[in-house]
Amino acid sequence: MTRSVRTITPETTGGTVARLFAEHNIGSAVVVSSEVGNPIGIVTQSDIMQQVAAKADLNTVRVDSFMSTPLITITSTEDIYTAATLMKDRSLRRLPVIDEGNLIGILTTSDLTDYLPRLRNTISRRRNELVNY
Amino acid sequence: MTRSVRTITPETTGGTVARLFAEHNIGSAVVVSSEVGNPIGIVTQSDIMQQVAAKADLNTVRVDSFMSTPLITITSTEDIYTAATLMKDRSLRRLPVIDEGNLIGILTTSDLTDYLPRLRNTISRRRNELVNY
């Protein structure tokens, strides 16, 4: 997972989020409540795209008017296959990782893709073990 | 891979692409030359985000002014680990699949994530083979 997660408040405008995405080369930000700071939703590049397509004024439209909520999350102890299945079933590209109410990271399809070459090594090693048995 | 790939010409405006992305819920489009129709570049949601952040006029800015080119591609006979390694090394989320000059699909990190649960089955099966040897 990616440990640095950008968080924003519900009052943030679409334009501010778009600049945040562009500057940091990221695809999503988790929306946290202004009061307690707990995660309540997520905004992705696709959500911004919808606002652009609808010709919304990005300088005034607030993220709480178009964020995805409630948040679908996963805990850090789940394995990558469970995460992949959840992302596939719910058509998600990002999964905030939350342990005991605390946002500790975000898992993206890029993170899982980066992990794939290691699985080849696992499969190859197991095959070797079989051959050498 | 995803077989339906959206293609656009270099003259297409950023606004048109944003609406294409939003309407079809896609994250990229391959740019093909107006004359021959061969793939010359790619435009992603991140590219549009950069234009929005730079306050470009999406109604007039053409994709050939900000598309990624030359195109990094893969052939359909490569395995998923090679694709994953290429995407990781080049920080790509989409890889057009081209066979003999023809664009036949696009491979995304979501496609690879969707494939992950199948690998669990492969690994489990191999493990069982080992046990039963």
How would you sum up this structure in a few lines?
Chain A has 4 helices and 5 strands.
Q: What keyword list fits this structure?
A:
homodimer, 133 residues, alpha+beta, 3-stranded mixed β-sheet, 5 strands, 40% helix, 20% strand
Total beta strands of chain A: 5
Largest interface: A-B, 41 and 41 residues
Task: Please outline the major beta sheet of chain A.
Answer: 3 strands, mixed
Major sheet strand order of chain A: 1-2-3
- Helix- and strand-based class of chain A? alpha+beta
Q: On the 0-100 scale, what is the average pLDDT of chain A?
A: 91
SSE order of chain A, as H and E?
A: EHEEHHEEH
- The number of helical elements of chain A comes to 4
β-strand percent of chain A reads 15-25%
Gross morphology of chain A is: elongated
- Quaternary: homodimer
Distance between the termini of chain A: 35 Å
**Helical content of chain A (DSSP H or I, runs of 4+):** 25-40%
Query: How much is the radius of gyration of chain A in Å?
Result: 18 Å
Poorly predicted runs of chain A are none
